[in-house]
Each structure stands twice: as C-alpha cells, then as structure tokens.
Specification:
By secondary structure, the protein is of the alpha+beta class. It contains 13 helices and 23 strands. A 7-stranded mixed beta sheet has the order 3-9-10-16-13-12-11. β4 and β5 form a beta hairpin. The radius of gyration is 25 Å and the shape is globular. The relative contact order is 0.11. It binds adenosine-5'-triphosphate (ATP). The site of adenosine-5'-triphosphate has 17 residues, from β10, β13, β16 and α9. This is Glycine-tRNA ligase. InterPro entries: aa-tRNA-synt_IIb, aa-tRNA-synth_II, aa-tRNA-synth_II/BPL/LPL, Anticodon-bd, Anticodon-bd_dom_sf, Gly-tRNA_synthase/POLG2, GlyRS-like_core.
Amino acid sequence: MDLMEKITALAKRRGFIFQSSEIYGGYQGFWDYGPVGVELKKNIKNEWWKTMVYGREDVVGVDASIIMNPIVWEKSGHLKAFTDPLVECKICHKRFREDQKDIHEHNNWTESKTFNLMTEVLLGTIEPKEKSYLRGEITQGVFVNFKNVVDSTRVKIPFGIAQIGKAFRNEVTPGNFTFRSKEFEQMELEYFVKPNEKESKKTFEDFKEIRINWYKNLGMNPKKLHFKDHEPEKRAHYAKYATDIEYEAPFGWSEMEGIHHRGDYDLSNHNLKYKDNLNNEEYTPWVIETSGGVDRATLFFLIDAFTEGVDGRVVLKLNPKIAPYKVAVFPLLANKPELVERARSVYSLLSTVYSCAWDDRGNIGKRYFAQDEIGTPWCVTVDFDSLKDDSVTVRDRDTGKQERITVVKLQSYFEDKFQ
Ligand code: ATP
C-alpha cells in the first residue's frame, strides 16, 4: 500500500473522512468528515481564527452567504473568465486557456472544453427559474461587504476582513483524495492597504511569513513546506505578486494556500472606495489576500503526522492543539463499577476544558492502539491504586512514557502542556 492508500484507509477506519453518499457508491469530488475528522477540521479552523482574527486588533470576521446576487459574479469577472475554452494539464491539474498551452512545462492535456467552474443552481418556483451560482471562492463575500464593515465597525485602513466557509468548483478532474474536490472550505483574509507600492509589498512579505509560520507552529515539517512564486505569465492578470505555500505531498509539491497581491482589482470591479475622514482622502485600497484550503490543510496535517513503526503500528503525531481529542480516559476494567465511577468523574472534570474520549472496550493495549491512530496525545487510566491514592496513570502518545499524577493536579498538568 502506498502512503495515500494508507491515509485513505486510516481516514475511513477511524472516522476521519468518508466518501460522500458512500452507501450509494460515493459521489466523485465530494467527501464527508466523520466524528474525529470533524474535530480535526474544526480545530484547524479555530487555530486559524485565533491567529488571524483574535490575535490581531486590525482584523474582523464575516460569514457571507454561499449564494449571492449573480451580478457579483459578473462584476468579479468569474462568469467571463471561467467560460473560456480551457484545457487542464493531466499531470499537475493546472488549467489553461487553450491558447496559452505552450507556456506550460508539461504536455499532456485533457480535451479542450468550454466549461464554467461555477456551480449553477436554479432558484424560484416559477419557470423559467432564476439561474444563480454557488460561490466559486469565498473572497467575493468579503468584498461585497467592504462598505458594510467599514460603516458598522471602527476599522481603519490598514485592516483585514477574515472569513471561513464553503466554496464550490465544478472541477474537471477531482482527485488525490480530498485535495481537489468540488465542494471544499476556504479560510481567507483580505487585508486592505493604501495604494502604495512599497508598503503593500511589505505587507505581502509579512503575510507570507505569518502564514508559513502558522503551519510550522502547528507542527508541520518545515522541510515539506516552501513558497512557490507564480511566474508573471502564469499569474492572474490583476495580481501584482502571487505566491503559493506548497506542501510536499506523496503526489508531489502541491498548493495548500495562496498569498496574492490583488491590487485594486476587486474593489474597482465593485466600484467600492474608502474614505479616510482624517485626511479627507478618498481612494481604492489595494488588497493582500491569504487564501488557504481547510480540506487541503487537514489532509496535509494528516499526512505529515502519519508515522508507522516497523510492526506496522500507526501513530498520528498531531500537534495537541489540533488533535481531535486531547485526552482519553479509561477505567482499567470496565466491569468494576468503582473504577468506572472514578474514571467517569475524571472524565467529567477534564471534559469541561478539553475534548476528551472515553474508552472502556477491550484491554488497555488495544485502547492505546486506537487512540494513537487518531492522534490523542495523552491517555489517562484509572486503576485500583487510584482508588487508594487518588492518582492516575498518564501515558504520552509520542514517548510512550507513563507518569502517576494526582487527580487534583491533573488540570494544571495539562494546562502546562498547552503552554
Ligand atoms: P489549484 O491551482 O490547485 O486549482 P487555485 O489556485 O485555483 O488552486 P485558489 O483559487 O487560489 O486555488 O484557492 C485558494 C485555496 O483554496 C487553494 O490554495 C486551495 O487550498 C483551496 N482550493 C482551491 N480549489 C480547491 C479544490 N478544488 N479542492 C480543495 N481545495 C481547493
């Protein structure tokens, strides 16, 4: 089995990711997150929000609707830009207008098709129904709310608007597990700055560092991360600078997040300006965007954390901050009510602060095995000694070391771990 097969098998076996509509044979390009997958994905989004919104006084969030007035897509250029005859490289899945094929290094193309990546939906009850679209990127939801945010909050340039949400693309070749899906989630910051070459370039460079460090600080192997600048001829025509953060996946270096200098392209498209009341100036701000894929980050964190011993034993070394469960609590024996009762009280104590797993099946070895596979950093076992000395055994996922800790100290013990 190659690594991607192992990851896909683990994802299904332990409840990270399932095929959508699996009982009906699945549905190409769509995926469901299971009980542990939803926790992992939620933790990734929360960590992103903590860094990009709560950690900054110059950023606020929005949650715009998925379906917007179709005029938005006309103005943004999506309806036009996505209906050109396109071909897609079968090797790296980059799409090109047919007349731009020769700028690409590979030469293995899908048939040329006039396709629109926007997913159409029909609304209304009377025929003909109104054609609308599921958003192809979450970005436009931020731009169309630019004025609302400026008018309703105290933000002043430079400031950012953050958003996390679903986007939909009618991808020609979905694949590599969740890497390229038709429905996916994005986490984005649109940061508005004065139209100034030097300052905006600096902001662009700063965000490159902020974003790559975010992945590193959450434990991603720095050797598997790099920037890949877009060559001028491959860049969107409006982008002044653009770079991708790529991860070295088993299927090659792959885009995980884009950092783009979008100039005044979007706000101009929507005819939006900013009024600086202090200096009585009016101008169209420039935008620096960080646009990450939640599903790609989730997949790459999974791949990065996957370790396998010589005996085939899998340990998912996820950073505790994003691990689905922080602590698992076990009674040594499930058929001893006094152990179960004591373990339940430990579970109640810890679960007010951390997402905890409870397991009383099989023997301790099997439970460790199961928790290692879902990346639970610590397992707490309540045994007969616990009833006498009020201590429990805490076992560390990565070192396998076990420590006796008194229950009263348990909360501060874990607090220290998260420092
Ligand atoms: P690609 O070249 O891989 O199609 P893109 O350059 O079109 O990606 P952007 O439009 O910059 O992607 O979107 C920002 C982010 O959204 C990407 O870096 C990626 O993480 C995520 N993303 C885009 N398309 C998909 C998809 N089909 N499935 C999953 N995630 C996606």
